[in-house]
Specification:
about 70 residues, alpha+beta, two-stranded antiparallel sheet, two-stranded antiparallel ribbon, 2 helices, about 20% strand, elongated
């Protein structure tokens, strides 16, 4: 008899609908509450990270849709 591999993804209490709650909380803190300046590599300028968070919000919220 061969052994079967079984995925345990999503079985932990930390997961709800396949989303790691700790990761969501961390991203929320970094993206929406952090006010440090972040270098914008493309423009060679500094922007408040909250400005970048607004630009990246739609990209991050679509991660689970693939």
């Amino acid at each position: 008899m061969e052994k079967c591999l079984t995925s345990k993804f999503g079985t932990s209490h930390e997961y709800r609908a396949g989303v790691n709650i700790k990761l969501v909380r961390l991203l929320s803190q970094v993206l929406f509450r952090h006010s440090a300046l972040v270098r914008n590599i493309e423009l060679g300028e500094y922007q408040a990270s909250s400005d970048i968070a607004i630009q990246q919000k739609s990209r991050i919220s679509s991660w689970g849709e693939y």
